[in-house]
Amino acid sequence: MDRPVNRPYLTTRSLTPENQESPVHFLNEYTTRVKYLFRRNHFSYPSYMKIPGSAHISGDVLQPLIFTFKDLLQMPLKEINFTLECAGNGRSFFEPGVYGEQWKNGAVSHGRWRGVPLRILLEYTGLKDSAQEIVFTGADFGKKIGENSKLFARSLPLKKALHEDTMIACIYEGNPVPYKNGGPLRLIVPQWYGMASVKWLTNINVINRQFHGPFQTEDYVYYPANEAEISPFPVTTINIKSIIQKPQDYAILSLGPHYIQGLAWSGKGNIESVQVSTDKGKTWSEADLGRTSNIYAWVPWRYLWDTAEPGEYTIYSRAKDSEGRQQPMTPFWNKKGYGYNAAAKHHIKIENKKA
To answer: How far is CA 2 from CA 5, 6, 232, 252, in A?
Structure first.
């Protein structure tokens, strides 16, 4: 009888609504397969039969139009290879702790999305001079505490909405966008946290004012500590970040050479370097960077660590990008736990024996 094959699985953070974490520490492929995509929901899944499979563009436009899934497939599709990260990824690492889904490092994925840039669709409808923001509404809905039932909706400023790579996606890794990941139509906003990439997209409304929906002005806002002299500000661009995939936190290793390896990504520029420390941050060494396809993609990295002495070690990784941003040793603490990006830290024990 053949031995069973060991496979990684999603890690459940909640069932209703479903929130599942990608087994990112056990994935060796450059892109994330559908079965390993993280799942982030505020509400229960919308009924599949009630998702129209089309996006209605209306509001401050010259000609309201509806674009179906089939309409998009008949247009020239653009492909973007990019890293999608939940704004709450790493929330469980904040000290003191904060409320919300206690994500570790797995609310992130990376893959090839294909669709039509929003600005192309808006060339068909036209924009009125009064247009200021564009509101995107998904088919998912439910109640926030103390409020009536609401659809999930968020807006983008006109400049970001009209960026050449902001698009309505219909294909992921060569197949229709999966239902549990926002299909059939999903907004894709590279370099912004995942809350901007509205799932189960149904309506695109061009407005002449600022949008003040609850997922715009209450959630996805950085609320600093009370004593901080910083006013609340919106969550937008992904912070620069690296994670350590191997060795696992609190792993026990033998004496000898071992690879420390992981992933790094940025919401602004290219990853230029990843540094590794094996002495609690006293000294740093350059890791080797792997492949990258574009400014939006994550970058694999690895560092050969020759462990000559037994003992307990604290290892760190920190990334730096072409915009001069570097991972801090201490994260920016905020009340809702968004944007965690402190230098990755693992504890390792080296035993006095050879592999």
So the answer is: 9, 12, 57, 29
Which residues touch 299 (CB under 8 Å, ≥6 apart)? 263, 264, 265, 271, 274, 289, 290, 291, 292
Q: Exposed e or buried b for every residue in 254-286, given b needs 16+ CB within 10 A?
A: ebeebebbbbbbbbeeebbbbbbbbeeeeebee
Q: Where are the beta strands (DSSP E) in 158-310?
A: 167-172, 175-176, 186-188, 201-207, 221-222, 233-234, 241-246, 251-265, 271-277, 285-286, 288-289, 299-307
State the pLDDT at residue 233: 97
In this prediction, residue 328 has a pLDDT band, given cuts at 50, 70 and 90, of: very high
Task: Look up residue 131 and give its two tokens.
Answer: 């247009």
Name the H helices within 298-344.
none
Question: Do residues 73 and 140 make contact, with C-beta atoms less than 8 angstroms apart?
Answer: no
Query: Could you please report the per-residue DSSP string of 50-113?
Result: G--SEEEEEESBSS-EEEEHHHHHTSPPEEEEEEEE-TTTTGGG-SS--SS----S-SEEEEEE
Q: For residue 296, what are its two tokens? A: 């939006």
- The DSSP-derived string for 252-288 is EEEEEEEEEEEEEE-SSS-EEEEEEESSTTSS-EEPE
- pLDDT tens-place string over residues 149-160: 689 999 999 999
| Nearest-angstrom CA–CA distance, 333 and 310 | 35
- pLDDT per position as a tens digit, 205-218: 999 999 999 999 99
Work out the pLDDT band at 226, boundaries 50, 70, 90: confident
SS3 state of residue 293: coil
Distance CA 339, CA 217 (A): 16
